[in-house]
Design a protein that fits this description.
The protein is an alpha/beta fold. About 35% of the residues lie in helices and about 25% in strands. The chain has 2 domains: about 5-75 and about 100-180 and about 270-350, FAD/NAD(P)-binding domain; about 185-270 and about 355-390, D-Amino Acid Oxidase, Chain A, domain 2. It has a 7-stranded mixed β-sheet with strand order 7-6-16-17-18-15-19. The mean pLDDT is about 95. It binds 3,4-dihydroxybenzoic acid.
Amino acid sequence: MPELQTDVAIVGAGPAGLMLAHLLHNAGIDSVVIDNRSRDDIAHTHRAGILEAGSVRMLEAAGVDSRVHTAGHRHDGITIRVDGTSHLFDFPELVGESVWLYPQNEIFVDLAAARERTGRPIHYSVSDTRLGDIESERPWVAATTVDGEELRIEARYVVGSDGSRGPCRAMIPDTTRQRYFHEYPFAWFGILCEAPPSHEVLVYSRSERGFALISQRSDTVQRMYFQTSPGTDAADWSDDRIWTELQSRVAGPDGFELRTGTITDKTVLPFRSAVTEPMQHGSLFLAGDSAHTVPPTGAKGLNLAFADVSVLAPALISALKDSDAEALAGYSQTATKRVWKAQNFSYQMTRMLHADPGQDAFETKRSLGELHSILDSEHGRRYLAECYTGWPNG
Ligand code: DHB
């Protein structure tokens, strides 16, 4: 039975886990990373594609930014369309920042390659992951490797970056763990298609038929979404039906038309908000989706995972190198402040832009009033631009 000794055992090789492993390695701290998915599975899972300015700065500081700048695209704004009329948000003018369009699976590829260059392990495709002794200074993680061997990792700290369905969160005792949850009456239908971009920037559209988002991937591949009901089966939607629906949600007096093409992927995305507090217990620390999920509107999921790591990495480094565990003790308190700002923004964007089939006419008018309070005001536009590009740390 391979038994590994390390400083930090990291459960989950998504962007949070791998970014953490990389920052720790750069500071001379060892880690072992495991994941129950295969490398291919993670690399081919389509997630959101927008990086806040701070997330890009983090990739730069970690030395993992070369492809963001060559394969990614800087976006200096977004368009919000309301019943067919466009409102442009110019981020550099409003808040002096930009965002980058660079899909999460590419970030995984970059971080996994960086990890491989260090020669330190990522054990993919493990099963039966367990952890224990998290209230002690010698917690452990065990799993069965892809070859059927038992793997046991003994560490000083364990980090659960194991996503919304991983085993780590449940290790925090019920008596101290609070789960905050909000369900929305919609889902998103997401497509990838072979077409040129329909607009210079992303288009978030509110219409009577519901929300649509016209995002991008490259000069030849586009990502688009439209609001649907949670029970939707992607197989019921022909390409023609999808294009008609998307077009109807962005149509307006300006004649805006989508550039269409072959649809290569159709997925229905779940839609919920959840937060677990505290994000730590004893020697266990949660980061990313294991502690919180946001609805996709506004693309905060990955950015929030990176923000967690930007607090957790220096705190672990101080604890392990300087025996100063003060920042680590305050990790949850520091991280959850931003988590709730992102929850609020994702919720607000969702509520302002979607048509809730169960809502009354008052709520439809009220949410339009909320949207116009932002669109029609310099302060409002600055507020939205700051939320979208990412709040300063602290
Ligand atoms: C994307 C997804 C989002 O939820 C969003 O707000 C912006 C972009 C995307 O996948 O491109």
